[in-house]
Amino acid sequence: MASGKARVPVIEGWFTTDEDRPQLLGSRCRSCGARFFPKTGACRNPECGRGEIEEVALSRTGRVWSFTDNRYQPPPPYVASDPFEPYAIAAVELADERMVVLGQLVPGTDVAALGVGAEMELALGTLYEDDEREYLVWKWRPTGA
Q1: Which residues contact 130 (CB under 8 A, 6 or more apart)?
Q2: Where on the phi/psi map is residue 14: left (φ > 0), alpha (ψ -120 to 50), or beta?
Q3: Which of 19, 34, 77, 102 is 20 to 30 Å from 57 by CA-CA measure?
Q4: In this structure, are strands 6-9 and 133-142 parallel, antiparallel, or unpaired?
């Protein structure tokens, strides 16, 4: 922690903050096996809806399902850098769960070289900072990057 600021998740309980192996935290129905992200307190599978839910770590890898670059500053409550810096977003289909999770790409990712089906892995990055804290969020990076 070079800046001396506390590094905290933007949303507590949605992902781990292990720098080397961050993971998204979802839920799984013990009755039907359906998995959800973000976590839920009840099974959302319309064919089940009654199962007991447990927290599970989700896949750290997946493949690009879709992607784009964001060249406009999102409105509040999103906290953007000043001046605003464009960033890329990818929808990644998790390897085991086959669900799609949206997230920013790590800075420096060449969107022009990215394609549907590209292999990605979960990473941590800073969404924004204030005087005391650095707020972390999950991001996607091409494997091997």
Answers
A1: none
A2: alpha
A3: 77
A4: parallel
- Helices of type H across 20-85: none
pTM (2 d.p.): 0.88
Q: How many CB atoms neighbour CB 71 within 10 A?
A: 9
pLDDT digits (tens, 9 = 90+) for 93-104: 999 999 999 999
Per-residue burial over 77-92, b = 16 or more CB atoms within 10 Å of its CB, e = otherwise: eeebeeeeeebbbbbb
CB atoms within 10 A of CB 97: 19
Amino acid code (one letter) for 124: L
Token pair listed for 76 = 């509040």
